[in-house]
Amino acid sequence: MEKLTIIKVGGKIVEEEDSQKQLLADFKNIKGNKLLVHGGGRSATKLAERLGIETKMVNGRRITDKDMLDVVTMVYGGLVNKNIVAGLQALGVNALGLTGADMNLIRSEKRPVKDIDYGYVGDVKEVNTEFLSTLILQGIVPIIAPLTHDKQGNILNTNADTIAGETAKALAKVFDVSLVFCFEKKGVLMDENDDESVIKELSKNDFERLVAEKVIQGGMIPKLENSFDAIAAGVKEVIITQASEIGKASGTRVQ
Amino acid sequence: MEKLTIIKVGGKIVEEEDSQKQLLADFKNIKGNKLLVHGGGRSATKLAERLGIETKMVNGRRITDKDMLDVVTMVYGGLVNKNIVAGLQALGVNALGLTGADMNLIRSEKRPVKDIDYGYVGDVKEVNTEFLSTLILQGIVPIIAPLTHDKQGNILNTNADTIAGETAKALAKVFDVSLVFCFEKKGVLMDENDDESVIKELSKNDFERLVAEKVIQGGMIPKLENSFDAIAAGVKEVIITQASEIGKASGTRVQ
Fold first, then answer.
1. What is the pLDDT of residue A57?
2. How far are the Cα atoms of A78, A222, B41, B145 from residue B11, in angstroms, in the given order?
3. Cβ within 8 Å of residue A224, ≥6 positions away
4. Domain locations in chain A?
């Protein structure tokens, strides 16, 4: 099987000009097949504010009414995605910007309302492995915005970590997938006050013990649970690292 | 050669929910290979207004400073494009939303400043015939937003009629291309006060005579000049018609 590196980068890095430039240069240097999933939340919040649309977050997730859906469609699918594509093309990377609606790549369902109505937010149901792998094998580099569709005409706002994870699992049938989640720190830390205390390798047993010991907590827990899910579904490795370290053998390796 | 129908639809039709729905249903019914180029000017102007950005037009062209470039990137590349894609996917059309930056499909150059500085506006230099025709021959239906790039990292705002014309000319090497320009009237009219006075067939000689006689004037002249250019470059036919008539044998046939 050929190798495929899937990089997920959050908002801040792709939204500021200098850090985006560095990211794209680093991304260009990754050898072989690759795919980028990006966020854009800060820009969406900023645009919403300028338009007088209130941003409501619950458990770190954006409540997406019709107006907010238009905002994220514009920011994620347009502004952030197309600027990354143009930036990579300038570096000679054959980037193609996509949402889950394009070629029906990622079908989702509107999240059912239980305690909270998240609005136009999608839970991923199906990734079109065939189309996506065909593009990649043609030398195209997909740049995926965190938007999916329900195949009934609606765009749905979808968490970028989830898109990266589900895409990695689907493509693991065709490629040896390395999934890289970029965040603010150099990796999962043994001591949150020591940025250098990166855990190099993390097994599921270690993870469960460290959660019980409250060494690992907060938003890192769902991120790692997703990572172990991906491994269980055939993804070869998941790396949690800083954007500046992509392509290097650093960060926390989940296996 | 296989047939390919290229449809260009302006802003209003794709920007209003009801007319967009009808357009997509009509577009779905076009048999064989097809490609859609859309506008979105009205929505861009509306968003710009809400953001306190002034819209300046010269000779029907939008002056595109950095703020306006962000607006059109969001509206054309995000909002309008992705809603069309999701709408077509719901109808079973395998739509893929694109700008000229994606896969380096359409490279342009920033328009040189002479009397007027149009800002981030691109003149088309090169269409990537190979990638575009490969997609189409795979059964994919490209939906192209009026944005290109300069391959130096900049998105450039580009007239949708020009994109349709240049794409048609490039693809004429691979396909028997019918290029359909949709506008408000049923076709080119002999009498501007009689909507039924459609000229069925228009040759270059007829055109020149009718311009001299001032039967054809205003914005229709550059549209028809572009059409004759396309014919001269190998496009099989150019049809000027109303959006509601696409796929039917009506309107004005330029040849």
1. 92
2. 17, 43, 6, 11
3. A188, A202, A207, A216, A240, A254
4. 3-254
Per-residue pLDDT, A42: 93
Q: Confidence band (pLDDT; 50, 70, 90) for B11?
A: low
What gap in Å lies between CA B229 and CA B235, rounded to an integer? 9
Task: Test A78 with B83 for CB contact under 8 angstroms.
Answer: no
Query: Do B79 and A97 lie within an 8 Å CB cutoff?
Result: no
Per-residue pLDDT of B194-213, as tens digits, reads 999 999 999 999 999 999 99
Q: If you search the block for the tokens 């369902």, which residue do you land on?
A: A109
pLDDT at B249 over 80: no
Q: Please judge whether A104 and B89 are an interchain contact, meaning their C-beta atoms are less than 8 angstroms apart.
A: yes
Q: Which of A252, A195, A251 is nearest to A228 (CA)?
A: A252
Q: Using CB atoms, pick whichever of B86, B102, B138 lies closest to residue A154.
A: B86
What CATH code is assigned to A3-254?
3.40.1160.10
Backbone angles phi, psi at B212, to 5 degrees: -60, -35
Residue A157, φ and ψ in degrees, nearest 5: -70, 130
Q: Which residues of A touch B51 (CB under 8 A)?
A: 50-51
Chain A residues in contact with chain B using a Cβ-Cβ cutoff of 8 Å: 47, 50-51, 70, 73-79, 81-83, 85-87, 89-90, 94-99, 101-104, 134, 138, 140, 147, 149, 151-155
Among B70, B94, B103, B131, most A C-beta atoms within 10 A, so best to mutate, is B103
| Strand arrangement of the beta sheet that strand A147-149 belongs to | A122-127, A106-110, A147-149, A155-157
Query: CA B73 to CA A83: how far, in whole Å?
Result: 9
Record: contact A153-B87, CB cut-off 8 A: yes
Burial of B245 (0-12, 13-18, 19+ CB in 10 A): middle
CA-to-CA dists, residue B120 to A17, A180, B147, angstroms? 18, 35, 10
Confidence check: pLDDT of B98 > 90: yes
Question: How do beta strands B237-242 and B252-254 pair?
Answer: antiparallel
Question: pTM, whole model, 2 decimals?
Answer: 0.96
A-chain residues near B83 (CB < 8 A): 73, 155
Cα–Cα distance measured from residue A39 to residue A161, given in angstroms and rounded to the nearest whole number: 9
CA–CA min distance B76, chain A (Å) = 7
pLDDT of residue B25: 95
Q: What is the pLDDT of residue B217?
A: 87
Q: What is the mean pLDDT of each run of 10 residues along chain A (255 residues)?
A: 94 82 94 96 96 92 96 98 98 98 98 94 97 96 98 97 96 97 90 92 95 90 92 96 85 92
